[in-house]
Structures are given as C-alpha cells and as structure tokens.
Design goal:
By secondary structure, the protein is mainly beta. It contains three helices and 45 strands. The two termini are 44 Å apart. It binds 2-acetamido-2-deoxy-beta-D-glucopyranose (NAG) (4 copies). One 2-acetamido-2-deoxy-beta-D-glucopyranose binds next to loops.
C-alpha cells in the first residue's frame, strides 16, 4: 500500500516515455514543486465491477454493476433462497456493494433485477433513487436509503417507469413541492419522464431532439446524454454534438446552442464527458458554464468492430450557456481521450481521469488506456490550463468510475470490457482493484494552512433553509487573523451518481461568508449564507469544504431543505 510518487521525477519519466511513443502526449506544463499526487491501492477486490458508484452522506459508496454478467468476484454462499438476479450456475453472487470509506470495508447488497447501464439521482433525504437497467430490470425503480448500521439494502418499487431505460440520464429537479427526478433517453427511446409522475395517467413525453441526434449505424452516439440544471431552472441537454436548453415545466426547447466543433461525437458509445463549472454567490449564482471533453472520431464504432481503433478526440469545448451569444471556446487536452471521468475538486479545478486514447465505448472496443489523469485549471491562461499528473498502473477502460470522497481523495474502481467477468481477458481483464488518488493539497505537509475540524452548527432542525445564514466552525494551526489574509472560500458540492464517464447532477457552489471571528483556541466562527433556492442547489446533502489559501479542508456534510 501507499505507493508514493514524486510528481516531478515520475512526470519526467512519463514525458520521456510518451515522447518516444506518442509525441502528441507531451505535457503542456510541469507540476509545481512540492505538489505530490499519491496513488494508493485500497484493496485487491471490490468484489464486483464498479460500473456505477455514488457517495452517500454517511460516507459509504454504493457500487453496483449488472446482474446479467453472471458470477462476480464475490460469492454469497449463505444467501438462501438465491434471488434470480444473483444466481449464476450453481452459485449465488453479489452485484452490488456498500463500501465504507472510514473502515475501507465492503458489504454485499442484494438486487432483485438487472441494473446494467442504468441511472440514478439522490433525493432530498439522501436516498439514492435508481431507475432502469436491462431485461426485466429496464423499467424498474429502486431505492437505497443509506444507513450507518450497515443493515440497509435495496428495495424495488412496484411502480414501473413508463418506458424502458437502458443508458438514460437522471437529474434531480428543483421542485419545491416534493422530490421529482427527470429521466431522459435510453437505447431507442426518444422520450423523457418524471419519477414520480405529476398525475396518475402521466406517461413519457416525446423529445424529438433525441431522435435528431441519434446515429443508428453508430449505436446511438447520443446515449447517456449530458444534463446540467442551469441557473434559470431549465435543463441543458447535450447529445452527440448538439445541445438545447429545455423547459421541463412546459416541455419546450427554448434555446438551441451551436454545434460543438471538433467532429466526431461526445456521447455513448463515443463517450466523452462533461462538467458544469462552479456557481458563485458573487454573481448571484447566475453564470452557468459547461465543458465537454473528449469523445470518439466519426465512424469509431464500426471501425472498432473490425478491430480498427481510431484516435479519440482530444478537444474540449467550453460554453457559457447563460450568455446572450453563447459560443464554444475550444482547447486541446494533452492527448486524445475518451471514457474519462470529469471531477470537480474543491479548489475549483477539474480532474480528468480514467479512459483510453483509441476506439470507443463498449465491449473490447477501445485500446491504449490513458493512465495519467489531467488537471484542468479553468482560470489559467488558455494553453496553460492542463497539467499531466503521475500515472496509475491500472487500466480503467469501459465500465470504470471515479468520484470525490469527503476526505478529499478520489476513489477509482472498475473496468470490464467483457460481457462476463473475465480475469484472463487480454489485454484489459476485468478489474476489481480499488484505488485512491490523493491530491497534493490533501497531503499533511499543507496542514498548517488547512482548515481543520470543520463542523456546522445545527440547532433543532436537521437542515439549513434556503437563503438562511448558518455557522461553520473550524480550526487553524497558526493563530488565524482572518481579516488580514485572503478570505477563505466556502464551497458546497452535490455528490454525483457516476457511471459511463457521466457524473449525473454533479454541482458545486461558492457560498457567501458575511462575517468571521476568532472565538479563542484558534477556532474560527464563520457565518455563511445557504444558496438562495433549489434552482441554485436542489434540496439534499452537500459536502461543505473550507478552502484557505488554496488548501481545502476535509468536507463536512450539510443538508439544504425547503
Ligand atoms: C494485493 O495483492 C498483492 C499481491 O498479491 C499484495 O502484495 C498486496 O498486499 C495486496 N494489497 C491489498 C491492499 O490487499
Ligand atoms: C423503498 O424505499 C423508499 C425510500 O426510502 C421508500 O419511500 C419506499 O416506501 C420503500 N419501498 C418499499 C417497497 O419498501
Ligand atoms: C476472456 O478473455 C480471453 C482472452 O482475451 C478470451 O479468449 C475469452 O473468450 C474471454 N472469455 C469471455 C467469456 O469473454
Ligand atoms: C480537532 O478535534 C479533536 C477532537 O475532536 C481534537 O483532538 C483536535 O486537537 C482538534 N484539532 C485541532 C487542530 O484543534
């Protein structure tokens, strides 16, 4: 365990290696001295492929894959009777796990039907609401209410989705009269629907945009569309190369954005990734900007079936979706990349991790894993925003995932480009190892600047109301004089549901701090204002981080409620 990599030295080796083989992969900038990113192997087996992952507010990670892949790496000999979804051959196998971050341990969960390539969203009480999947699971709605006693498990609703949803995307809506989730798309399904429905005879609604962006000969190129809830309450929907602003109340497209340059396609199986930049109290949480990175070259799917693997797209596009004249601003990643995860960090930078450089998504349809994450600094000068970070040794290809933990590390799991589990698969076998990447800023050497022991003062209610002030307490090692230094940032992060390079409903906001005082013993008492409305921040649990001089604290959980 604890494989430390000194950024600078390793980076030079990598740069040398890459410059001999893949000249376009040269780093655009070097890591600054003392900025050490550390890879750790957390365990040799997560039992199942981490195809889908989500961090709950109790610091457990719910992991699941597909029951139709048969035997997994985690037998359940004592499960009697063996549910159909766990049965394979004569054995019974887990296809879902609860990973406890603090104890680094796993507990099997039980699924009743197949969750393969499905979608989910957190509800305001922290419940993970999952929808769809495959076969008899494709219209199912499942719930998992997280627990700290390690006794909770999946339940499956008797209510069904209106349509089959396999490769759909979910987004929690900012409705103030109860939780409602928008579920859109799926293979050969050009509709969206709400869960729950607004009235008993409501079904699915047509979305012609999905038909228009569908490339049948390429297996879609518009599956798992990117969805971002914009600051005006409308939904930004991106599929293939096109995007719209959608008013889900009236079922109307109210804006059509320019097509993203760069050719190819950005959605499954040409799987790129997308992120919504942090919202900021300084502009009233109004400015919304999205970024889309990577994807596959035109024709990549048909070529991969013939075992020809085209280089992935290396371009990223940024667009301010709230601008009067929105345009894509294009820039180049250090190399071609697809099937990557894009993760918002508390420093407001973006981590691009996992994936491959050639081919497209799907079984055995990509080669050349990209082992080096990229760090993207959105506010640096164009051309200097990307840094290549030290590599992992583990290929994270199709059906891998990564997410931010409350302690500031990135959890990475999965990869399985085969129909079943295949531990002899060549060259990218089924991967069950779990890793953590620790950003340099979480290293102990920065503890002198790090806000420690962050807590939130909560009185009789169990959440913070929109627009209300609340108190954040933390400690600094060196006698803090808050007035004299750059004020710290208070950021909140809605943990996403992650699958297929999509971080559904990932969202970050910078909150306003109205006053700060030192209350003795080095404790800082900061008064922070909650987001103004569920449009800015849909109700639910958020990770709150205090960032002091660029160094983030570990996160404390805070809940925003109506
Ligand atoms: C994983 O397996 C390797 C090789 O068998 C072993 O050396 C290592 O200690 C294991 N690591 C963990 C975290 O279990
Ligand atoms: C499943 O869990 C959800 C969320 O906790 C709950 O509302 C629902 O009643 C549960 N359903 C069943 C069948 O237990
Ligand atoms: C597992 O991988 C090996 C080598 O790539 C291949 O020959 C075999 O057919 C695969 N098995 C399955 C079940 O896909
Ligand atoms: C944080 O709190 C723990 C007890 O909860 C205490 O032992 C520790 O000293 C605190 N850290 C600092 C920097 O004050």
């Amino acid at each position: 365990m604890g494989r430390k990599i000194i950024g600078g030295r390793r980076l030079n080796e990598v740069a040398l290696m890459l410059s001999l083989t893949l000249p376009w992969l040269l780093p655009s900038t070097q890591q600054a001295a003392g900025q050490v990113w550390t890879w750790d192997l957390l365990g040799n087996s997560s039992g199942i492929v981490a195809m889908h992952m989500a961090l709950t507010h109790l610091d457990t990670v719910i992991i699941f894959d597909q029951t139709s892949s048969g035997s997994s790496g985690y037998p359940l000999p004592n499960l009697r009777p063996c549910p159909l979804a766990a049965a394979s051959g004569t054995g019974c196998w887990a296809h879902s796990m609860e990973y406890d971050v603090a104890s680094n341990s796993l507990r099997p969960l039980t699924l009743k039907t197949d969750t393969w390539c499905s979608s989910a969203s957190f509800l305001s009480d922290g419940t993970l609401q999952q929808t769809g999947g495959y076969g008899t699971g494709n219209r199912r709605i499942r719930y998992l209410l997280p627990c700290s006693d390690h006794r909770c498990d999946w339940n499956q609703s008797a209510t069904l989705l209106a349509n089959r949803r396999w490769y759909a995307t979910n987004q929690i809506l900012p409705d103030s009269d109860g939780d409602r989730v928008f579920v859109v798309g799926g293979r050969k399904v050009f509709t969206y629907e709400f869960v729950p429905k607004s009235h008993s005879d409501e079904g699915a609604h047509d979305l012609p945009f999905l038909r228009q962006t569908n490339e049948a000969s390429e297996k879609g190129n518009n599956l798992y569309p990117f969805i971002h809830l914009s600051s005006d309450g409308n939904l930004f929907i991106f599929a293939n190369r096109d995007s719209i602003l959608f008013d889900y109340h009236r079922g109307r497209v109210i804006r059509t954005y320019p097509r993203i340059p760069g050719g190819g396609a950005r959605n499954y199986p040409s799987t790129g990734s997308s992120v919504l930049f942090p919202f900021d109290y300084a502009d009233g949480f109004r400015r919304a900007e999205v970024m889309v990175c990577g994807g596959a070259t035109a024709g990549a799917y048909r070529a991969a079936r013939r075992r020809k693997f085209y280089p992935a797209l290396s371009s990223c596009g940024r667009m301010e979706i709230t601008d009067n004249d929105p345009q894509w601003e294009m820039e180049e990643m250090p190399g071609p990349r697809l099937m990557s995860d894009m993760i918002l960090l508390p420093t407001s930078d973006i981590l691009i991790i996992n994936g491959a450089s050639h081919g497209c998504a799907g079984w055995q349809k990509a080669i050349n894993p990209v082992l080096t994450p990229y760090l993207y600094k959105p506010n640096d000068i164009t051309g200097q925003r990307f840094t290549i970070l030290p590599p992992s040794v583990i290929a994270r290809m199709y059906h891998s995932a990564a997410l931010l933990l409350a302690d500031g590390r990135i959890l990475i799991g999965g990869s399985n480009p085969y129909k079943k589990y295949n531990f002899s698969g060549d060259p990218y076998p089924t991967e069950l190892r779990l890793e953590a990447l620790t950003p340099y800023f979480m290293d102990n050497s920065f503890d002198d600047r790090r806000p420690l022991n962050v807590s939130i003062e909560i009185n009789e209610y169990d959440g913070i109301n929109y627009g209300k002030e609340f108190v954040v307490l933390y400690e600094l090692q060196h006698s803090p004089s808050p007035a004299a230094r750059t004020p710290p940032e208070f950021v909140v992060m809605l943990p996403p549901f992650v699958t297929h390079s999509l971080s559904m409903h990932q969202r970050m906001l910078k909150l306003e701090c109205s006053r700060m005082e030192v209350v003795g013993g080095g404790t800082v008492r900061a008064v922070v204002r909650a987001p103004p409305s569920p449009v800015a921040a849909p109700a639910g649990f958020y990770m709150l981080t205090v960032v002091n001089g660029g160094i983030p604290s570990k996160a404390a959980w805070v809940r925003f409620i109506h």
